[in-house]
């Protein structure tokens, strides 16, 4: 590489679908699920290939980030406005501080098993060689309806020999039938991991709904810029609109740990298929997630999530774990989240 690689880790969210373990004052990136380190600390350890590491978060979480990632630089966005404004703000600030570089942008709460560094280094090289925006795609292992999908074009190769695919189409989360078709037709899961130079990304963002923010940042008015744009994901604002998107396939197993059913997929279960976190007793229970910071006992049940933290308890069929967001929305409306 002819420029430094900067790992940018996004750690400003809450992780609402892992309620009640994750709450507004205790986001999931600071929690540990079956390991000794928090999800954020695991992510920082994973980016040892980078020359520098930044973590972007909300102002009220900055001190917690420093505790979990003491060797990373911390950026605090003016306010949470989803991943689109967050990544524009970070690209602008890092270019000011580091100069010409290539950014590898990552969520703080994913599970990865495999050669992560090799994939992300390849994505960074492709981003520099093509001058475009690179997304990392994961080959599906099941027809998952909770993820977005990416349709790749024909294989291409950079001058340095790295293979990649131009992106033909991004799709939103599908129904079961569409997810089965996507798996059969060679689509990739959209893992929310990217590589680009700040110049390339900000140039594309300027032609998107995030343009007012790009202009305001260059004029030294980040607060005004955030006020001028709506909350929007980077996929919708930029990646689905650009003609310069490429895909690099992942050489690692991946899960986004977005909901309780995902936690069950990445930890060792007992002989009856139960995934247990904390002090729990299972009697005649099968294929159930039990997570607690106190004690929980479950008897004669199957295919459930039972999560009890502090004064909150959640019980939901494992197959409907995505619906925890509905609970959080209700609680948030009542000021009780």
Keywords:
337 residues, 2 domains, alpha/beta, five-stranded mixed beta barrel, four-stranded mixed beta sheet, Spore Coat Polysaccharide Biosynthesis Protein SpsA, Chain A
What does this 3D model show about the protein?
- By secondary structure, the chain is an alpha/beta fold.
- It has 2 domains: 5-255, Alpha-Beta Complex (Spore Coat Polysaccharide Biosynthesis Protein SpsA, Chain A), CATH 3.90.550; 260-333, no CATH class.
- It is 30% helix and 29% strand.
- The protein is built from 11 helices and 16 strands.
- The strands form 3 sheets. The protein has a 5-stranded mixed beta barrel.
- Strand 8 and strand 9 form a beta hairpin.
- Helix 3 crosses helix 6 (198-206) and helix 3 packs parallel to helix 7.
- The chain is globular and about 60 Å long.
- The model has no long low-confidence stretch (mean pLDDT 94).
Tell me, briefly, the overall form.
globular
Largest sheet: 5 strands, mixed, barrel
Poorly predicted tracts of residues: none
- Summed up, the domain count is 2
Determine the mean pLDDT.
Answer: 94
Radius of gyration: 20 Å
Provide a short characterization of the protein structure.
It is built from eleven helices and 16 strands. The protein is of the alpha/beta class. The chain is globular and about 60 Å long.
Task: Set out the fold topology.
Layout: E1 5-10, H1 39-46, E2 52-57, H2 62-68, E3 73-76, H3 83-98, E4 102-107, E5 111-114, H4 116-130, E6 133-138, E7 149-152, E8 156-157, E9 163-171, H5 176-184, E10 188-196, H6 198-206, H7 211-218, H8 222-227, H9 234-239, E11 245-249, E12 252-255, H10 260-266, E13 275-283, E14 289-299, E15 304-309, E16 312-317, H11 324-333
Parallel strand pairs: 1-2, 1-4, 2-3, 6-11, 13-14, 14-15
Antiparallel strand pairs: 4-10, 5-12, 6-10, 7-9, 7-10, 8-9, 9-11, 15-16
Helix pairs in contact: 3-6, 3-7
């Amino acid at each position: 590489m002819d420029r430094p690689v900067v790992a940018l880790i996004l750690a400003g969210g809450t992780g609402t679908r892992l309620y009640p373990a994750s709450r507004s004052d205790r986001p999931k990136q600071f929690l540990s699920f079956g390991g000794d380190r928090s999800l954020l600390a695991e992510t920082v350890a994973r980016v040892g290939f980078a020359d520098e590491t930044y973590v972007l978060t909300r102002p009220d979480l900055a001190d917690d980030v420093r505790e979990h990632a003491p060797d990373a630089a911390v950026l605090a966005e003016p306010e949470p406005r989803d991943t689109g404004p967050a990544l524009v703000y970070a690209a602008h600030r890092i270019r000011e501080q580091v100069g010409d570089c290539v950014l590898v942008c990552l969520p703080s709460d994913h599970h990865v098993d495999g050669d992560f560094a090799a994939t992300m280094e390849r994505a960074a090289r492709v981003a520099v060689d093509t001058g475009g925006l690179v997304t990392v795609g994961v080959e599906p292992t099941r027809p998952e309806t909770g993820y977005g999908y990416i349709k790749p074009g024909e294989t291409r190769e950079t001058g340095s020999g790295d293979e990649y695919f131009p992106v033909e189409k991004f799709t939103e989360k599908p129904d079961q039938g569409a997810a089965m078709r996507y798996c059969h037709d060679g689509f990739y899961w959209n893992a929310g991991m990217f590589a680009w130079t700040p110049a390339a990304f900000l140039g594309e963002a300027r032609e998107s709904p995030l343009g007012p923010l790009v202009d305001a940042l260059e004029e030294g008015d980040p607060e005004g810029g955030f006020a001028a744009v709506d909350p929007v994901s980077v996929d919708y604002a930029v990646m689905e609109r650009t003609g310069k998107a490429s895909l690099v396939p992942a050489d690692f197993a991946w899960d986004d740990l977005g909901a309780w059913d995902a936690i069950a997929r990445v930890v060792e279960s007992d002989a009856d298929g139960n995934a247990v976190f904390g002090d729990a007793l299972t009697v005649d229970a099968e294929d159930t997630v039990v997570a607690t910071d106190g004690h929980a006992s479950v008897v004669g049940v199957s295919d459930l999530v039972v999560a009890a933290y502090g004064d909150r308890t959640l019980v939901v069929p494992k197959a409907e774990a995505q619906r925890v967001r509905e609970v959080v929305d209700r609680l948030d409306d009542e000021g009780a989240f």
